[in-house]
Amino acid sequence: MNNDDIVSTLNDLIETSKDGEEGFRTCAEDAKDPTLKTFFSNRAQSCAAAVMELQSLVRSYGGDPETTSGLGGALHRRWVDIKSLVTGMDDKAVLKECERGEDVAVSSYRRALDKSLPEEVRSVVERQYQGVLKNHDQVKSLRDQYRSA
Questions:
Q1: What is the pTM of this model?
Q2: Residue limits of the DUF2383 domain (predicted)?
Q3: Which helix (H) or strand (E) covers residue 48, if one does?
């Protein structure tokens, strides 16, 4: 992979992580349960830290780091907002939509890991991918808890 390919891959992950940050923030605003609000807020902060780490890597490869989220994330957040309004801000609906957003993040990180990344980049992406998987599993578990409640 040349530097442009590396920068492009990392910038895609920055968009994904910014989508996650903003998505978790939206979910925190929409959730009624204080525990969920805290969970979503903490996840938003983790995504923000991932963005900063990825932006630093982009700079180290001579690129300009992405600073905005993607269109898909904006559309997803609007869907969360609309669905929350329609369902009376039901926490189950918020969790379901949050899980859908995490499905996208898992796919984005898998696509990046399928590429021939330099070892120092791969280790960061792999570590962040493990965090994305943990977020996904936690959201799914919470969704299942709220579904059965």
A1: 0.85
A2: 5-115
A3: helix 34-60
Residue 21: both structure tokens together: 């940050």
Q: Which of 75, 65, 17 is nearest to 45 (CA)?
A: 17
Q: CB of 40 within 8 A of CB of 27?
A: yes
Provide the 3-class DSSP secondary structure of residue 111: helix
The pLDDT tens digits for 17-51 are 988 888 888 888 888 899 999 999 999 999 999 99
CATH of the domain at 117: 1.20.1260.10
Q: Taking the chain, what is the end-to-end CA distance rounded to the nearest angstrom?
A: 49
Tokens of 132: 């994305």
Q: Residue 116 sits in which domain range? A: 3-148
Q: How many domains does the chain have?
A: 1
On whether the CB atoms of residues 112 and 9 are closer than 8 A, the answer is: yes
Higher pLDDT residue, 124 or 32?
124
| Cβ neighbours, 10 Å, residue 62 | 10
Q: Lowest mean pLDDT of 3-12, 78-87, 93-102, 125-134, name the range.
A: 78-87
Residue type, 72: G
**What are the structure tokens assigned to 121, written together?**
């980049």
